[in-house]
Structures are given as C-alpha cells and as structure tokens.
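subagent[fold] <- orchestrator: predict structure for attached chain, return tokens only, no commentary.
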Amino acid sequence: MRVPYAGVLVLLLAASASAKDASAPAEAKARTEAANEIASFVTACAQGGAKSEGQRALDEARSLDASGPGVKAATTALDALTEDASGAGDVAATARKSAGPKVAKAYDKLSSLDHDAKDAARFDGYLFSAIRWEPTKGRLGRAQKAVDEAARANRTEDAGRNLVQLKRADAEGAAAGRYDKLELDLATKDFCLLASPVNELVAWVSLPRDWAKGKSYPILVGVDGAGSNFLGYGRGSKGARASRSVILVCPCTLANTNELKPETYPWYHPSLLVEWNGKRIEFDGKGVDGVLDVVRKRFGGEEKIFVTGFSGGGNYTYYKLMSDPAHVRGACPACANYGGMGLEGATPVGADGGPVVQLMTGQKDQFRDAVNGAPGIEAQTDAAQKALADLQFRHVTRVMVPGAGHDALHGKVWEFVDRVLGGK
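subagent[fold] -> orchestrator:
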C-alpha cells in the first residue's frame, strides 16, 4: 500500500535520524511540543477508529520524542484498535483539519531555531513537515528559499531532496512549471533529483553542457552497486562524460544492494523499504521508467536508452536489457552481478538480434572468482552471456579490462556509448 504524503516524510527521516543530536535544550523542548500535538491527533484517530492514519502519525511523534506522556497515552489508545473502522478516512480528515495548524506551528518553531549549517537538512525537514500538516503560501515560499540556499551553497543532496519535497507539496505549482528553472539550473550545474510520477523512486539527473530546449539527446542510465552512493557514482560518470551531449540518469534503486538500510536511502520512508523489500526489481523497473518519461518530456531525452550498472547495479541493467530490449539502444554492464532477477517472463528478441551489448569485467577484480562464497563476477557474467544467447541476442561482445579491479569503468562505458552512437 502506498503511504500517503510519503514524499514529504522523506525529510522527516532526516529529523528522526538526528534525534540523538538534538541536545540543545530549545530544540529538545520544541520537539516534545510537536510530538504532543501530533499525539493529540493520534488520540482523535484512535477514538474514531482510524487505526492506519493514527499509526503513521504515531511513528512521526515517536521520531520526535518517544518518551513524552502524550505519546505514551496515544500509543495506548491506538493499541486498543485492531483495524480501521468504517469511515476511518473521514474521521482522520476531520481530525487533521483541527490538528494540522497546531502541529504545523510546532514545526515552524523548530525550523526557525538557530542552528549550524551542518544541521541544515534536519531543520529543512521540520519546515517540510510543517507544510505537510498545513501547506500555506508562506511556508511554500520559505521552502523554495531553502532550496535556493542549498543550491547556492553547492549542497546538491539537500537541494535535490528539498526540491522533490517542494514539488510534491505544491503539486499545482509544479504542474504550472513554477520550479522548472530551479530544476534546470541544478541539472546543468551538477545534478537535480527527479521523482518518478508512478512510485516513490527518485533519480539524479545531469544535463550535458550544451543542453538546449527543443533538441533531443541520448540518455545513459547508470546504476551504482551495493554501496548505494548514487550521487557519487553519478559524479564519477559525469566527469568521464566530459563534453559529450548525453543526459545522465542515476536512479536510487533498491535491487543493487543487500540490506535496505534507512540511513542509506534518505529519500525514502523506512516503511517503503519494508514494503518493497521482496519486490525490489518491480519498484526499480516501474520507477525508472517513470523518471525516463519525465526526462523525455522535460529535457528531450531519446526514446531508447543506454544502460550500465556496476556490481549490484547489474541487476537492474540486465533486467532492463532482457525484459525491455525494444527501449535499449546499448547495454554495458561493468563488473556486474547477474542472478536473473525479474527475468522469469523474458522472451527472445526479434529478428534484428537485439541491441548492442558489451559485457565488461576486471582482470584484477577481487570478486572475480567468488562473492561471499557464491559464484564470482566471471561466473555470473558467464550466466548472463548464456541467458542473452538463449534470448537470441546476437550483438554481444565480452571484454576483460586489463589491470582493472572491481570498478564502474566509467571511461570504458562512455567509449562504448561513443562507438554505438558513431555507428548510427
């Protein structure tokens, strides 16, 4: 089930994750006050049988101050319910109308406290929480200022997260193009963070230096491995891209890593990670397609994409290549994992033999022979090569890069893109 207002709850995580750092008396006191206001909403939900909405709000209150008497009393009231009663949605809406302004004011107080620049993400989170409870023009204006300030200070991650929250909070303004220039400036200077319209997935997007409205550009989708340092991976690829006229998209996927840790995914609410843990490739597949649709409409991205993935990023790369070859112009997995994730229904490609594929491994890859006791990168690439042959892909080459370790091989990936583009 999709969590309502999950987009704005992302920044609540920043506040929650830093709860232990909230040592300043003023902030600690204000957090307790906000928790108590939310607890009053939870109690109203419990009294009206709105279990689900009450539980989401209770989680929020606990992230601010789990030990307050108001929170404890609300917990007791909510625990007495086993499920939502009939009309629970109406009960929650009525309670929110009354509680919203009070909770928002409590968050306003938090967001206005003096704080160090290093704590900006946490205090921006308070502001966006206020917007979620009561979205006013003044708060939206302050939120846009927070994005502008983060962008000017080259705090790309903060600017990206804040802009996603702002667009979700002000859907009408976003649809009218209110934030398009800011988004374009971020994507041209470094990276902007784009949200998928079909689920909660977000992706870092960088435009080429010569980007101009009205022109079309190839797209390279690049996916990081288990480290999930998606922006860092993107910057490595962006540096290797140099002056090439190609849009770079680096999605924050789930199928690339082992354990889904909230601290590794600050863009997503923890409940989302639990919900999608057993269907990661489904989340990634639909979400990346949604982002690509936005990139095509907003920035002139071409219909067919290039795709690469490093290590665990190979899971999405092979999935996209084998399940949707009609929308792939070229694929270049780099020291990539392959396990057939999501490919049970893959069908053979057409008479053209499918897109161009180059499988790359590193001669000195420390995971070449084994990965945590399982078959290593070479054996996994053998399996991928066989799967491609079974699906009748005919334009497949394999390269072992001399001297390379377990690496994203950004330079080699871009050379592959050059060759395919040059062979139009």
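orchestrator: received. Logging for downstream: The CA atoms of residues 62 and 317 lie 39 Å apart. The longest helix spans residues 25-48.
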